[in-house]
Amino acid sequence: MTSEQSRELVQQAWRSFSTRDKDQIAAFFTQDAEWLAPPGNATAVALGGSHHMVGRDTIVHFLTVDFRRMFVADVALDFRGFYADGDVVVVEETMRATLAGGNAYHNDYCFVFELRDGLIHRVREYMDTAKGHRMVFGDA
After folding, report:
1. Domain ranges of the chain
2. 10, 40, 61, 115: which has the fewest C-beta neighbours closer than 10 Å?
3. CA Rg, the chain, in Å?
4. Which positions fall inside the SnoaL-like domain (predicted)?
5. CA atoms of 7 and 66, how far apart (whole Å)
6. How many Cα neighbours within 13 Å face the side chain of 20?
7. At 129, is the pLDDT very low, low, confident or very high (cuts 50, 70, 90)?
8. Among 44, 31, 12, 11, which Cα is nearest to 121's?
9. For 53-99, what is each residue's pLDDT tens digit?
């Protein structure tokens, strides 16, 4: 794929995530896809899940079911950039939402998408984990 095709694929995938349509979302991932976030991040801890999701079905379940359990309302994404080089796409964004406990959530993210055969094979997610913990669990 060209860099432009890779960028477009990842942009289409992000649009599909908001639909919560499992079949539409699944179509963007390889069967053996992986999504890696920092160990101990607040979302994984609060949901009792892993920071390392393995397999398309696990990732799709998170995006269509678990994400909504954590971020219950007012989810808004502000994309600052989609940067592509061949089969690698980097996405910078800010996410805002209302958490299940009523707290406001506002954090910056960087995602590195690695594509294989025209599909997302691996996602590496980076965020301010300390800030996330404060918003989810308070200052304690």
Report:
1. 3-137
2. 40
3. 15
4. 10-122
5. 26
6. 7
7. very high
8. 31
9. 999 999 999 999 999 999 999 999 999 999 999 999 999 999 999 99
**pTM as predicted:** 0.94
Report the distance separating Cα 97 and Cα 33, nearest Å.
Answer: 26
Helices (H), 18-139: 22-26, 42-47, 56-61, 67-70, 129-137
At residue 139, the pLDDT reads 76
Query: Comparing C-alpha atoms, which of 138, 58, 126, 127 is closest to residue 102?
Result: 138
Within the chain, how many helices (H) and strands (E) appear? 6, 6
Coil vs helix vs strand at 30: strand
Closest by CA to 74, choosing from 57, 98, 90, 49, is 98
pLDDT mean across residues, the chain = 96
Mean pLDDT over residues 3-31, rounded?
97
Contact between 123 and 36 under an 8 Å Cβ cutoff? The reply is yes
